[in-house]
Write a structure and sequence with these properties.
Helices cover 70% and strands 0% of the residues. With 318 residues, it is mainly alpha-helical.
């Protein structure tokens, strides 16, 4: 399968995703009174969740001003808890997610994550439509475990990742609405990286996020995934997927120049450190069945000066 042929279809699915982003309802939550001590405790809980579950996100967000930093971590915590309701909870996940959705709009919430998240939604005027797009897509994981085409998968990536970037834009601040299409691309790139990293883990949960038509094009089947077979076909398939993800990162990063200055480094760092996961997959022979690709703490730290330099030299696309 030729990468250029796949990229030739890029504009079609990208246009659909950008349309989803720009047509979202401009509806917001209004602020409501909350005890300051309770609010501080709620944000502290979100910080703890972020530090525990995503060292990369925690490190990247550390370079933002404190108000935006705690808001971004509230966003992460909300997404993390929402995702866990689908992936890791027992019992009726659909009912639990539905109750969670309703609770967001309830002024009498008692959950600390929702307390912080509601405050963030109101404080930064984040359209709640993005949040509901996220929750709607997470809910599809309860009924959908396969994607026939990359276009279908791209819509899933938009729902669980691009929406997060779009909400982050409102927290960070931006100078041009054209930044939306770059946030959409970056979200797809980040989620594709997650998908490629987690093939083995997802398979053990009964899910396969790799496009079935593209597996077939490389003469692969679900039997190959089940066996964790590192064949030449699998390596070719992974090279193709990684090349597309890298093209998406490259096409997304210029849009960071339209974000407020005090958030650019954090977003660039998150993107660059996540993109480095692709390097680790390559380094270990595309074995995503028996190990989880990652970037070590020291590799993240030594990468930061170069990332800072690239952030300073960003220029908006005209």
């Amino acid at each position: 399968m030729a990468l250029d042929d796949a990229l030739g279809q890029w504009r079609a699915w990208e246009a659909e995703l950008v349309n989803r982003a720009t047509s979202v309802s401009e509806e917001y939550l209004e602020p409501y009174p909350v005890d300051p001590a309770e609010l501080r405790s709620a944000y502290a809980r979100c910080e703890q969740i972020t530090r525990t579950h995503s060292r990369t996100f925690y490190l990247a967000s550390a370079f933002m001003p404190r108000p935006k930093r705690r808001a971004i971590r509230a966003l992460y915590a909300f997404c993390r808890v929402s995702d866990d309701m689908v992936d890791r909870s027992e019992g009726n996940s659909a009912a639990r997610l539905s109750a969670w959705r309703r609770a967001v709009l309830d002024e009498k919430v008692s959950d600390p994550v929702l307390t912080a998240w509601r405050d963030t939604l109101a404080r930064y005027r984040i359209p709640i439509g993005y949040m509901f797009q996220l929750l709607d897509t997470l809910e599809t994981d309860l009924t959908t475990a396969r994607y026939a085409t990359f276009k279908q998968l791209a819509h899933y990536c938009y729902g669980v990742a691009s929406t997060v970037g779009l909400m982050s834009m409102h927290i960070i601040g931006y100078t041009d609405r054209r930044a939306v299409e770059y946030a959409v691309r970056l979200g797809v790139a980040l989620q594709l990286t997650n998908i490629l990293r987690d093939v083995g883990e997802d398979w053990r949960r009964g899910r396969l996020y790799l496009p079935l038509s593209e597996l077939d094009a490389f003469e692969l089947s679900e039997r190959d995934i089940a066996a964790g077979r590192l064949s030449s076909q699998w390596c070719d398939f992974m090279r193709f997927q990684i090349a597309r993800a890298r093209r998406l990162y490259a096409a997304a990063l210029p849009g960071i120049a339209w974000l407020h200055r005090d958030g650019r480094f954090a977003v660039t760092a998150a993107a660059e450190l996540y993109r480095a996961i692709l390097d680790d997959i390559e380094k270990h022979g595309y074995d995503v069945f028996r190990r989880r690709a990652h970037v070590s703490g020291w590799r993240k730290l030594i990468a930061l000066p170069a990332i800072a330099w690239r952030t300073c030299t960003l220029h908006s696309v005209q």
